[in-house]
Amino acid sequence: MPKKVSQTTDFQELDVQNIAIKEPLNDIEVFLDFCKNDIQSATKELEGITVERNRKHLQKLVYVNLINRFDYLIDNLLLWFSINNKSMRDTILNTVDKDVITKKEVFEIFFAKERSYELITEKIKELTRSNVLRSRHSSKLLKILEVCLDIKDCMKPRVNNSDGKVFKKTTGNKNLPNSIIGYADWLYSRRIV
Questions:
Q1: What's the rounded Cα separation, in Å, for the pair 167 and 6?
Q2: What residue ranges do the domains of the chain occupy?
Q3: How far apart are CA 188 and CA 85, in angstroms?
Q4: pTM given for the model
Q5: Cα–Cα distance measured from residue 45 to residue 166, given in angstroms and rounded to the nearest whole number
């Protein structure tokens, strides 16, 4: 068991000064409400089930639902960041760096001035869906943390494996990953076990 060190709040506080806050924070709020209300009530109901086989099956369904909702949140955040975060947008646009665009296409975008912004944002979202959202869960989370939020030490051993809390540092565990990304990937992979 890793040694407990003072808990950090690096990942609990989000600097939202430069974000058009409403959409992503609303998605996060919906997920947190789901965790607080639905998951907690499901956990209480699971404690009352005495037949182990039934409890284990229902526990698995609750866990899969939680992981799927989290994955949906990550996908929505990546789509939002692909438009509203310069670093993420540059990462996405680098995937089409060598693509050629005709003058006709450029003129069509300019002449559709009422819709040009919508057209461009939809194209960027399409690129995000095809290049980023098809990636592993851990690489999507890593993009949010490193590219969008500029958090650089996601691969350091910082997660207490027994409860999932993030610390400034922990001692290693040979059986479970101790990095934030590794631990998130391990949790995600357990939904199919």
A1: 6
A2: 22-152, 153-193
A3: 26
A4: 0.74
A5: 28
* Confidence class for position 125, pLDDT limits 50, 70, 90: very high
Of residues 94, 170, 92, the one with CA closest to residue 125? 92
Contacting residues for 116 by C-beta, under 8 A, at least 6 apart: 109, 110
- Percent of the chain having pLDDT more than 90? 18
At 183, the amino acid letter reads Y
Q: What is the pLDDT of residues 53-85, one digit of tens each?
A: 778 888 888 888 888 999 999 999 999 999 988
> Distance between CA 178 and CA 110 in Å, rounded?
50
Total Cβ atoms within 10 A of residue 82: 25
How high is the pLDDT of residue 13? Answer: 46
The pair of structure tokens assigned to 32 is 């947190």
Task: Give residues with Cβ within 8 angstroms of 109, minimum separation 6.
Answer: 116, 119, 120
